[in-house]
Amino acid sequence: MLDQGIGKRIKVARKLAGLTQEQLAQRNHYSVSTVRAVEQGREPTSMAFAAATASALGVPLEELTGQPYRNLLEEDGGLPGLAELRAIFAEGRYVVPIEPRPLTLLSDDVGQIRILRREDKARQALMRLPDVIRELHGAISIGDSTTAARAHGLLAHAYATATLTTYRFGYTSMAIHSVDRMEDHAARSDDSRLPIYSLIHRGHMLMASASYGLADDMVNRALVMLESEEVDEGTLSLRGAAHLRAAIVNARNWRPDTARDHIDSARVIGEQLGRTTYAYDTSMGPGNVMIHDIAVSLESGDPGRAARDGSKVVLPPDVQATRVGRHWMDIARAWSLEGKPDNALKALQNAKAVAPQQTKLHPNAQETLRAIAEAERRRSNSLANFATWMGMKI
């Protein structure tokens, strides 16, 4: 028997709201057949569908996704650092500082934490974040104006990592608090591009709540602001990241032509860079453009194209593990939607091979595996073993 998935939670929430499937389809702007297939577990639920449905039903997204997956997290050792990070958010503007080390060492630590997150070691990143954040607050409290401005910039980067990490583990409300902090410190830093970086993160949070119009406004505002910045690797990385974010926002908002325009713009920037850059932690480069190109097909309602093209694409070796893992999760969902469960399972296995921590805890992987199990008449050993590793019963 399958574990309860997003589809079943949507069905319960819809009935509690007193809506028919037809009425829900009118509100979340998907077809009735899609609503029916998702509720029955025949189609893997995309995060776009879940976000739109949560908004339509007036419930938190986590209520539908079942995140955070506390049992799985505890089985793997929990999330050291999460309680301390929550305490920092609760302290608001009165964060209790600790004696800071020199800013050069703190800068190195922030850089290392960002690398851990990119390399699918988000637990280790989260564990190290709270002390570094408190030290940076300490540097602000005892330093001169120049030191304080640099510390504000490092805090903006630290809170950006906290945003991405808490969001990945399913703590959406904490991620939103973290973006608020990021914006505040970015505005007080000595880096004029950090507020722009914050806008891109705000767009991500808005996209997760299906506020696509406002998310599009955020990334377009970022693009306008970047026009006045010196054109170097940092500016190019942010410009490319904004175009990629806008591409997904518009794909989810049923504007595929606009999404493709943004992909084309990002591709030009990727060619200018010629490699993956981690300036502003964007992972911008030709490989990330390829990944988003496939994702636009999937999000725009063309899973066949996404599955075929995505399975053939050869990503450059410098693409980060979590981006490659996310790519294979998208391909798995695309193959599942195309009625090819064997191909979908192989794609999930590829995601696991490159980014196991992310794959195990990502709703897309969980939902795709449920759809594979529904489609397979006989449970293969491969499917059973993968489900056991994911902590699911099928």
UniProtKB/TrEMBL annotation:
Residues 10-64 form the HTH cro/C1-type domain. It comes from Actinokineospora bangkokensis. It comes from the Bacteria. It holds the Pfam family HTH_31. GO terms for molecular function: DNA binding. This is HTH cro/C1-type domain-containing protein. InterPro entries: Cro/C1-type_HTH, Lambda_DNA-bd_dom_sf, TPR-like_helical_dom_sf. PROSITE patterns: HTH_CROC1.
